[in-house]
Design a protein that fits this description.
Radius of gyration: 17 Å
Largest sheet: 8 strands, parallel
Shape: globular
CATH architecture: Alpha-Beta Barrel
Order of helices and strands: EHEHEHEHEHEHHEHHEHH
Distance between the termini: 14 Å
Number of helices: 11
Helix content: 40-55%
Structural class: alpha/beta
Strand content: 5-15%
CATH class: Alpha Beta
CATH superfamily: Dihydropteroate synthase-like
Bound molecules: 6-hydroxymethylpterin-diphosphate
Length: 284
């Protein structure tokens, strides 16, 4: 299934400023639902390499009018935040999941909040912080290291009382990884899926795709769709994407082909086959 990205920021790496005004953000949120996303992921702080953190009050001031304006959206909303106070307010405002790019390193209290409130939690792997993460992208075995960090974060969430189905994991493409590291994580995504948690993955418009093709963020839609399909075939449950319509079309065509019975994805069920939000780590 698809999680459509809505960045209500002035400075996100590919769509910064486009939806910074609440009216534009709300309209894009509705469009994302119409285009076939199963989840809307709203973020109010850019985590691009080198980004400075935004104060919590500012993060909430960006989110609040948008969450309020999208309260009647027909799909669940996840909020991309690592801050406990922002997550609490977002859940009060109707958020169905918290997408934590620090996998509880930002605020371990998030796990208790999620356990108490019954919403979904996405634990994403990042090395360091957005300011520092690209300074050292060398790993012995990137997939093994990311897998073991995600396993530990998931264990911490379960120890705090979260239900296994509430907690999804994400390898964090672009967050402290080299071009080769990102490609390796996609190629061996089945090893992340073997953790048994729902898997989110976000290759959308990221610079490792640009490095393969030598194109800028605005020209990476086709590459993003291709990376998403490759991820789906290797066990991704949720594709976090900017280009919702294009990704939806690709998944639908693949599902139509697989429905003929010979596709490899037919056995595992591609994310194009809507299984319900519960399969992605959130409430049904
Ligand atoms: N990537 C970004 C932000 N949040 N969350 C998850 N779970 N997985 C990801 O890969 C991921 C994420 C970065 O992309 P974007 O939101 O488009 O950019 P920015 O951080 O500049 O707003």
């Amino acid at each position: 299934m698809i999680a459509g990205i809505l960045n209500v920021t002035p400075d996100s790496f590919s769509d910064g400023g486009l939806f910074a005004r609440p009216r534009d953000a709300i309209a894009r949120g509705r469009q994302i639902a119409e285009e076939g996303a199963a989840i809307l992921d709203v973020g109010a702080e850019s985590t691009r390499p080198g980004a400075d953190p935004v104060p919590a009050d500012e993060e909430w001031a960006r989110l609040e009018p948008v969450l309020h304006g999208l309260r009647d959206l027909p799909i669940p909303v996840s909020v991309d935040t690592s801050r406990l106070e922002v997550a609490e307010r977002a859940i009060d405002a109707g958020a169905a999941a918290i997408n934590d790019v620090t996998a509880l390193r930002g605020d371990p209290g998030l796990a208790h909040l999620v356990a108490r409130s019954g919403v979904g939690l996405v634990l994403m792997h990042m090395r360091g912080t957005p300011r520092t993460m690209q300074l050292d992208t060398a790993y012995g075995d990137v997939v093994a290291e990311v897998r073991s960090a995600l396993a530990a974060a998931r264990r911490a969430a379960l120890d705090a009382g979260c239900d296994p189905q509430q907690v999804a994991v994400d390898p964090g493409l672009g967050f402290g990884k080299s071009v080769d590291g990102n490609l390796e994580l996609l190629a061996r995504l089945d090893e992340i899926a073997s953790l048994g948690a729902p898997v989110w993955v976000g290759p959308s418009r990221k610079s490792f795709l640009g490095a393969v093709l030598d194109v800028g963020p605005g020209e990476r839609a086709t590459a993003s769709v291709a990376a998403g399909l490759a991820a789906a075939r290797r066990g991704a449950d949720v594709l976090r994407v900017h280009d919702v319509r294009e990704t939806r079309h690709a998944l639908d065509v693949e599902a139509a082909i697989d429905a003929r019975g010979t596709g490899s994805a037919a056995s595992g069920g591609p994310p194009g086959a809507e299984e319900g939000w519960s399969a992605a780590g959130g409430p049904s």
